[in-house]
Amino acid sequence: MLILNIGMPRSGTLWRYKIVRDLVIAGGGTDGLEIRKKFLLQPFISLPNADLNTAKPKRLLPASYPSFLGKTYVLNTHTGPTELAASMIKNGRMKAVYGFRDPRDCILSILDYSERAKPQYSARFLDVKNVEQGVSFMETYIRIWDAWTNLDGTFLIRYEDMLEDFQGLMDRLIQYLELDITSEKRKEIADTYLPRQKPKEGVRIHFSEGKANRFREKFSQEEQDFLLEKYQSILERMGYTG
Q: What pLDDT digit, counting tens, does each position of 88-104 carry?
């Protein structure tokens, strides 16, 4: 079984990826990076996090080949679904975990990251310097959110719910992935990635602030009004208030 971990930019994608990856491995699966090496899938699965840059057949088909041999593993992506991906989910050949966040906080996090970025950093949004540019950058990812949300079989995770109900979400995720994990292993993984804690030595959970609604503190009223005008109907669908 191939499992895709998909995320809106700056929505805790790598945090979720590591949780899903560790749960799958604990349930008898394999690290996606090991799959990449063993099956010589370097042209299709990228480093550093077993990344799948697109779900188009030219990448998804070879990347999913080991799953047809009985392997279960997780790949990480920000891309939208394709007809092939939808078909694989419908036919039980793939599962998709999609995570999103209030887009206003995504834009704030993008601006923070761009401001502190070092020369060696690489990210598509490093040129985003203001709220208006942030809205333009997020247009593609709002469409991707809409596509995954409307695809039957996708497990949806809000970043804010991970912060407020981490344990409950872990249980629902394990159920969705149909994993058989001991209570001891589940606790170990939960303790490793529990939000708002000091990370264990050697473990990066990729938190900068780990807070919801931070945009209300950092953006001016004018910026907040602009974003509300742009996103009001979308925010309602996502379950956020103005």
A: 999 999 999 999 999 99
Tens-place pLDDT, residues 141-159: 999 999 999 999 999 999 9
Structure tokens at 126: 């490093």
107 within 8 A of 134, measured Cβ to Cβ: yes
List b or e across 123-132, with b for residues whose CB sees 16 or more CB atoms inside 10 angstroms: eebeebeebe
Q: Where are the domains of the chain?
A: 2-238
C-beta of residue 212 within 8 angstroms of C-beta of residue 160: yes
Residue 200's pLDDT is 58
Q: Nearest-CA neighbor of 101 among 203, 193, 209?
A: 209
> Length of the chain in residues, anyone?
242
Between CA 165 and CA 45 the distance in angstroms is: 32
In the block, which residue shows the tokens 């590591």? 18
Quickly tell me which residue has 């840059």 as its tokens.
Answer: 53
Q: Does domain 2-238 have CATH number 3.40.50.1260?
A: no
